[in-house]
Design a protein that fits this description.
heterodimer, A: 93 residues, mainly alpha, elongated, B: mainly alpha
């Protein structure tokens, strides 16, 4: 019979289905008798599932402006390069 | 023929689908990926200004290398590497913060191996919590309290859903170390969040 401590130590493998039957059976037996471990397991699963759905925070306005500046400068540089290599293009300013 | 972008991220397994990222304009790339880069950096560093600097550094590199990629998989694999490296560099440069000592989750047991205190069910399931903005703030606050070594693995594995083998490469760890840190990180997160999410006792 495994203890609550043993069970918690096996949770990651148990939840991901990686425990072989020989090690999984004692976990399931323990869970059928221990309401504390069952509550622990449920909260652990909830945490893993909700972590995947954590929404991104919007970009701060200051950062958005910094990135727009980089993009603009990049566009201007490319335009200058294009003109510089195109014999029919107007000369770079 | 070898694709120019394919050699960029080394031998890593590609992530995502092979959409033609090279057909996107820099503006579209920025719109699609900047929030991802910024949020990973923000959560890794728990520092707004540093996360903004990391995002800017990463996008300067993106503009420099964009033409070398063929397909979104090669690009995102490379993007994660550049973002994680930039965030780790910022952390190293920053003065070492006072190390926090969080209660060790595996010490929550009595000598006989049973739970020392009560364990209550959480009031809401993942579907409800996924839509709860207050819950997201508590989760972000808990992430910020994790020691760095656990936070990085938790973010890459559970928030970004990257494969363990790739996380091991990104952080220079063995796969066994990634698993062990992830396990510890989840237990710490569960304990940090339990006071907010457990059912109230009448």
């Amino acid at each position: 019979m495994i203890t609550c401590r043993d069970l918690v130590a096996l949770l990651m493998e148990f939840v991901s289905g990686q425990l072989p039957p020989k090690r999984r059976d004692p976990v399931e037996q323990h869970l059928s008798r221990c309401s504390l471990c069952l509550a622990y397991l449920e909260s652990y699963r909830t945490l893993v599932e909700v972590s995947r759905c954590l929404p991104p925070a919007p970009l701060p306005e200051r950062l958005e402006q910094r990135l727009q500046t980089i993009l603009r400068e990049n566009g201007q540089r490319q335009e200058t390069d294009r003109r510089g290599t195109d014999p029919l293009g107007s000369p770079a300013q | 023929m070898t694709e120019p972008g394919a050699s960029q991220p080394g031998t890593l397994a590609p992530i995502g689908q092979g959409h033609p990222v090279e057909l996107l304009t820099p503006e579209e790339i920025f719109k699609k990926y900047a929030p991802r880069v910024y949020n990973l950096a923000r959560r890794m560093l728990s520092h707004e200004a540093d996360a903004e600097d990391v995002t800017q550094d990463v996008f300067v590199q993106v503009l420099r290398h964009l033409h070398t990629f063929r397909g979104e998989a090669a690009f995102t694999t490379w993007l994660y590497r550049v973002t994680v490296n930039a965030a780790l560099n910022f952390r190293r440069r920053r003065a070492a913060r006072t190390a926090q000592r969080l209660a060790e989750p595996l010490e929550d047991f009595a000598a006989n191996g049973q739970h020392r205190g009560p364990v209550r069910r959480w009031a809401a399931g993942p579907e409800q919590l996924a839509l709860d903005r207050e819950a997201h703030q508590w989760i972000d606050a808990a992430i910020a309290q994790l020691p760095d070594m656990y936070r990085d693995v938790y973010l890459l594995a559970d928030v970004e859903e990257l494969p363990n083998a790739y996380i091991a490469e990104l952080l220079g760890l063995s796969v066994a170390a990634v698993k062990s840190r992830l396990h510890r990180a989840r237990l710490l997160m569960r304990n940090l969040l339990a006071p907010y999410f457990e059912e109230r006792v009448a």
